[in-house]
């Protein structure tokens, strides 16, 4: 659900590039934190969630890169 919500947020509104980069960075940090937490508790490992959060990081990095190119 979070993945879909963040994509809807990004598609639904035009933001200035700096705000877009900041928002993407926060979502990357959040997903990375979830992955780190799961890896620290091996009994909690869930491949589907790991893949979902990793994809969120990739998606947000792409969004941030596009926003960065808008600044340049």
- Helix-strand pattern, N to C? HHH
Question: Could you say how many structural domains there are in total?
Answer: 1
Strand content: under 5%
Average pLDDT taken over every residue: 82
Total strands: the figure is: 0
Radius of gyration: 13 Å
The structure class reads mainly alpha
* Biggest beta sheet attributes: none
Low-confidence stretches: 1-5
Instruction: Supply the number of helical segments.
Output: 3
Assign an overall shape: elongated
* Helical residue percent band: over 70%
Biased composition (Basic and acidic residues): 1-19
Region (Disordered): 1-20
Give a concise summary.
Residues 1-20 are annotated as: Disordered. The chain is mainly α and 72 residues long. The protein has one domain (17-71).
Structure description:
It is a single chain. This protein has one domain (17-71). It contains 3 helices and no strands. The protein has helices spanning 2-12, 17-40, 47-71. The radius of gyration is 13 Å and the shape is elongated. The termini are far apart.
């Amino acid at each position: 659900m979070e993945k879909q919500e963040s994509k809807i947020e990004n598609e639904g509104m035009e933001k200035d590039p700096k705000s877009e980069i900041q928002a993407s960075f926060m979502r990357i940090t959040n997903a990375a934190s979830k992955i780190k937490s799961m890896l620290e508790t091996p009994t909690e490992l869930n491949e589907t969630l790991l893949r979902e959060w990793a994809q969120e990081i990739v998606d947000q990095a792409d969004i941030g890169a596009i926003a960065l190119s808008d600044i340049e």
